[in-house]
């Protein structure tokens, strides 16, 4: 994961917004760190990241602002220790080359004291510790003062190194916390994706059941229409058979009339007429009746 680093412009905006909120009394009224630093983070993000994400790639949270304020305190002490030319004397111009917001931090938070590592021992006052004249009656005391001063400088350097270690540790903890939060976000997104997939599967099952029900209903309607069609076909077939029987009866009567009454034709015609009547009474039967003629016909 890329280490998040503040730019000098973002630091300047942070100091400006913090000074504005503190002067208005908002910092003193608010109880929690989140309520104190979230407005500052929002203004820093609005002034830099939201305007130019390529130049300011990081989106800061209230935790980042809180950690940065603590880190700037250690940074100020470290730079102030480096620019200390002599006890109580500091090269602030050189400090601006080391940290451009050095004076801005001092104006907002005040000039922090380096405490014991920066104080001059009482036995060194009025003595030129950088001079070469360490002979005579005061030479021994001067050498002791120099040794004490060197030891205190070593202690001050170690304190500054410890401060840098603390700063890096806090930055690492903040980065780990941010990474952990992003990991939980990814887990939540995966869970949300799985829930959406399950919901999609449920919708697909419901849609499939609906299609099956519609198909069954359509098949039932189709079977009913087919049965109705078969009934109509059977009725049409029965009507056709009845019409054929009627035509056959008419043909029989015509044939009998053409043959005439000779040679027992009257009986034959009577028999034909009776048979025709019998066939008309059997209209519902599709079979063709057999016609019997006399031998002398």
Give a short synopsis of this structure.
Residues 123-145 are annotated as: Disordered. The protein is mainly α and 297 residues long.
Report on the structure:
With 297 residues, the chain is an all-alpha fold. The protein has a domain at 8-192. 71% of the residues lie in helices and 2% in strands. It has helices at residues 8-24, 26-29, 33-49, 62-82, 92-98, 102-109, 139-259, 265-281, and strands at 84-86, 89-90. A two-stranded antiparallel ribbon has the order 1-2. Helix 3 (33-49) packs across helix 4, helix 4 packs antiparallel against helix 7 and helix 7 (139-259) packs antiparallel against helix 8. It is rod-shaped, with a radius of gyration of 57 Å. The relative contact order is 0.06. The model is unreliable at 116-139, 263-269 and 287-297 (pLDDT under 50).
Mean pLDDT, as a whole number? 78
Q: Structural class from helices and strands?
A: mainly alpha
User: Ends: how far apart?
Assistant: 122 Å
Q: From the alpha-carbon coordinates, what is the Rg to the nearest angstrom?
A: 57 Å
Count the E strands: 2
- Low-pLDDT segments: 116-139, 263-269, 287-297
Largest β sheet strand count, sense and barrel closure: 2 strands, antiparallel
DSSP strand (E) fraction?
under 5%
Number of helices: 8
Helix content: over 70%
Order of helices and strands: HHHHEEHHHH
Biggest sheet strand line-up: 1-2
Shape: rod-shaped
Region (Disordered): 123-145
Keywords: Coiled coil
Coiled coil: 167-217
């Amino acid at each position: 994961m890329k280490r998040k680093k503040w730019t000098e412009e973002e630091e300047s905006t942070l100091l400006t917004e913090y000074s504005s909120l503190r002067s208005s009394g908002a910092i003193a009224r608010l109880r929690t760190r989140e309520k104190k630093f979230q407005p500052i983070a929002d203004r820093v993000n609005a002034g830099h990241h939201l305007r130019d994400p390529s130049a300011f790639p990081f989106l800061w949270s209230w935790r980042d602002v809180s950690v940065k304020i603590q880190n700037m305190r250690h940074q100020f002490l470290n730079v102030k220790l480096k620019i200390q030319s002599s006890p109580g004397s500091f090269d602030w111009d050189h400090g601006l080359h080391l940290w451009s917001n050095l004076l801005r931090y001092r104006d907002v938070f005040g000039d922090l004291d380096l405490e014991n590592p920066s104080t001059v021992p009482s036995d060194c006052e009025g003595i030129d510790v950088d001079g070469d004249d360490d002979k005579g009656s005061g030479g021994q005391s001067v050498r002791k003062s120099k040794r004490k001063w060197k030891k205190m400088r070593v202690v001050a350097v170690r304190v500054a190194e410890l401060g840098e270690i603390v700063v890096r540790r806090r930055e690492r903890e903040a980065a780990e916390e941010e990474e952990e939060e992003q990991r939980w976000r990814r887990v939540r997104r995966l869970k949300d994706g799985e829930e959406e997939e399950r919901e999609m599967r449920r919708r697909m099952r419901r849609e499939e059941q609906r299609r099956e029900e519609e198909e069954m209903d359509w098949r039932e309607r189709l079977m009913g229409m087919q049965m109705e069609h078969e009934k109509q076909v059977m009725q049409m077939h029965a009507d056709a058979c009845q019409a054929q029987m009627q035509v056959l009866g008419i043909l029989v009567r015509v044939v009998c009339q053409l043959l005439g009454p000779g040679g027992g034709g009257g009986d034959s015609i009577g028999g034909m007429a009776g048979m025709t009547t019998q066939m008309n009474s059997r209209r519902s039967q599709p079979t063709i009746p057999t016609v019997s003629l006399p031998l002398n016909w």
